[in-house]
Every structure is written in structure tokens, then in C-alpha cells.
Amino acid sequence: MDQLDLLKKDWKRQDSVNPRLSKDALSKIIHKKSSSIVKWIFIISVLELVIPILISLFTGKMGSAEELENLGLTSFMNSYYIKSFYVFYYLVIIYFIYLFYKNYKTIATNVSSKLLLQNILKTRKIVKYYIWFNLALIPVISSILFYKIYHSENFLEQLPQDTNMLVVWVLSVILIVVLVVLFWLFYQLIYGFLLKKLNRNYKELVSNDIVL
């Protein structure tokens, strides 16, 4: 049982002699817990951005040029469209991270419970947009890459003569669906867990009428 649950139990045992003090104490704990949750949302989003970049830098790109050539993706991956997409993607992700940080600072520095309610709702909405943005990119990017690969002469030359492309496409679609489900489960495990705790804080504020 955490500090919030203990305080609530103690609060229920109290008389109505000093309800204001109990509400203030409960409000401070909810503020602290909410601030910590939003901070972790911010930290995890930063790690999601930084870790893949660090892995790419430290592992290098040995053999990647040859692999791209075999798949017939060399010119496509070096094209203006792909470079523009990378710029767009990182700008959007950095903007989401900025919003998470902004919400964290607002919750951490402001003692208004009314503002806390608003920021909890805002954080939940931003996290959902962030998740859907990342999930939507998987089928879009995968479909484009598969299309480019399967229409590449280099790739087609390596396929057995009796290969049924319809079967290849069906398997590709199944792979895309599996990837989306796996990433959705990952986001539910990490962000979903934090959002549930944040939603619990929201309900505590509303149910106990703590709006200062």
C-alpha cells in the first residue's frame, strides 16, 4: 500500500474537525506522484529517440550498403524523399518530447489542483497522439519499402522462378500486422501503465473534491 492509500485511510478515520489540512496533504501527494509519472513519460520518450541513434552510431553500418543494393533500395534510401521524411519524423518526435517536458514543468512548479486536472487530461491526450503517430508509421513505411523491394530488379533476380508474389505480399501484410501489435503491446506496457496511474490520480482529485 503506497503513501496515497495510507493517507486516504487515515483521512477517512478523521472527524470533520480539520478537513482542510487533510485535503491539502492529499493534494500535495497527488501532485508529487503526478509530477513523477509525467517525468517518466518524458524520460522514456527521450530514450526512445536517443537509444536507436546511439545503437546505430556504435554498431556502425557494416554491410548495410551491400544489403540495400541487394534489395534494390540504394537510390530510394538516399533520395530526397527519404531524407525529408527523416527530418519530418525527428521534428515531430522532438515536438512531442517538448510537450511532455512542458507538462512536467507545469505540474512540478504549480500547486493548483485545478491546473493539475487540466494537465493530466492534456498529458493523456498527447501520449495517445504520440502512440498513434508511431503506430501509423509502421504500416505506411513497411508498405512503401516492400513495394520498392518487390519491384526491384535486383531483388526479383534473386527469387526462385516459381515464387508466387501474392503469397509474398500476404506474408508481408501479416508481418506488418504482427509488428504493429508488438509495438502496441510495448506502448501499452510502458505508457499504458503510466497513464493508468495518472488516471488514478485524476479520479482521486475529482472524487475527493480537491480543486484548489
From TrEMBL:
Lineage: Bacteria, Pseudomonadati, Bacteroidota, Flavobacteriia, Flavobacteriales
Keyword terms: Membrane, Transmembrane, Transmembrane helix
Organism: Aureibaculum flavum
Name of this chain's protein: DUF4328 domain-containing protein
Transmembrane spans: 37-60, 80-101, 129-147, 167-194
Highest taxon above the source species: Bacteria
